[in-house]
Structures are given as structure tokens and as C-alpha cells.
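sorry for the late reply, my laptop died twice this morning and i had to redo everyting from scratch. anyway the thing you sent over, i finally got around to it. pasting the sequence first so we're on the same page, its 318 residues, then the predicted structure underneath. double check i copied it right bc i was rushing
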Amino acid sequence: MIRIRVPGTSANLGPGFDALGLALNIYNWYEVEDCPGAASSCVEGCPEELSGEDNLFLVAFRRGLAALGLQAFPIRVRIESRIPIARGLGSSAACIVGGLLAASVLGAARLGREAGLSKEQILDLASALEGHPDNVAPAIYGGFRASAWDGLKARSLGRTLGRAEGREPGQVLDFYALVPPFALETRVARAALPKEVVFGDAVFNLGRASLVTASFMAGDWSCLSMGLEDRLHQNWRAPLIPGYYEVVAAARAAGAAGVYLSGAGPTIMVLGVRDRTGQSTRSGSLRASLEAVAAAQENGPWTCLALAADDDGALVED
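ok and here's the structure:
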């Protein structure tokens, strides 16, 4: 049996649609074992409607085996899920990366090899299954990642965040995920997007995506507020999320270093900057303010998850 840990992720980071993402210290664990002689694979620990052969973990597992030249074989998967489903925190990417990593390890054992798929191969396969690399790249590598995919090959560069300080001595980033009590399926969020983009909006996003990428790569948080602005998707998805405008306004008023819609939503990600002593470099107590506005939502209390960056990416623990 093997045990795999995959981090949750937050994608887009405002303007970096389908290109930017980062890994967070909220995880799914997958216990996987080969089941010789079983008629089919078995998935435990997820809703029954998601436990069939079309389960994303199993789909990715079979795709990984095929890349190794192997026929599919039955496995038992036990899922311990901490990443909220359909909330914009990379639950599908975690399943895909976990399935590919399981195929790599168990497939290598079947072939009598020490190693199976490389991280680069896993990135290519995961990008094809997900349709874009923004979530899967940080799930694989950890940290902040800027990624691109041409339909066959994916490329990704990034920087660790969890153990790296900012440009100013002692400054670190905190991540607060404000998670609503309702889901928003990616296909619904994508259907809300316009078919054409105004040229000026494209230029706006190019500048912001460049700025936020430079901010994360340099560890300079001074431009995050402007860098995380977006005109390609957030304005179109906001009406699908009751409470969106109130939560965003409250986060900015409380002194957030940046606010953006995590992935396709509905989770809203708020960034705070503090020094190593725990003192916020912005006014007031950001976390307390966010917890208050989350609890006061008319459509039911939201959850405020205080998170940090994950630098390790997907791991085989056992």
C-alpha cells in the first residue's frame, strides 16, 4: 500500500487566467493498494455518485498506466479529503495528480523499475486531463507557479513561498480562504465568461499578470493589490456568488494586501502581509475582520481558513 498527499491549490491569482497558481497547506490523502483478482477498482471516502470508474483519480490512474505502456489493473483507493469540493481550491487537480502519482509508483513496481513517470510527464498528462496547468502545476511542484500548455507539452516555473521571506526583511504572506457554504461548478463558472475579449481588457490583464508574477518571484508584496486586479473573468463570475461584493469590500477595508477569486470560485482568497513577530503590516486585525464578515453572510456563514503556502507539492508518504 502507498499513501499519497496532494496539496490544495489556488489558481488564476486574479489576472493569470489558466496560467498562475500556488499550493496551499490543505491536503487530500489517498491510500492506494493493488487488488489482484478484483473485478474492478474500488473508491472509498467520497460521495457514492463520485466513486465509479469515472472517478477522476481512477481516470488519471489509467492514463498514467497507459503512458507507461501498461494495461489498467484494479486498485482500492481510500480518500481522506480536506480540500472542499467545487469551491475553487483545486480538488479536481488533487485527484488527477494523486492518480497519476499512484500510477507512477505502482506501475514502476509492475515493470520492475525504480522510477515511473517523471514530474514533467505528470505535468503534461495532468494538464491534458484538467485542460489547463494552473492548478496541477503547483499541486505537483508546490509553491507559486507560472505555467503554459500548448495542448501537448506544459512548461512551469516558480518559487517556493512557505519558507521564503519577502524582499523586506521578515515579511511573510498569509492566505485566508473565505469559503461559502455553496458550490460553484467549474463548467457553470466558465459558461458565464464572454466569448470575446475587449483589447483594452487584454492589455490590462497582461500588465497585471506580469506584475503579480514578478511580485511572487521577487518576494516583493508592495504591488500585490494592483497586480491581483482582473478584467477577464472575475466580473463575470461575481454575480454567481451571493455576498461576493460585500466580502471583497470588507477585506480591502480591513487592510488586505490583495484579494482575488480563487480559481473559478466561489472561494475568495485574501492575502495578508505580516512580519515574523506576527504583527500585521496593515491596519487592524485582518483575520478577525474576515471571520466577522464571513459569519455575517445572509446566505449562511462562510468558513475562514487561515492557510500558508505549501512548498513540497505532491508526495508519496509511505
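The mean pLDDT is 92.
thats about all i looked at so far, will dig more tmrw
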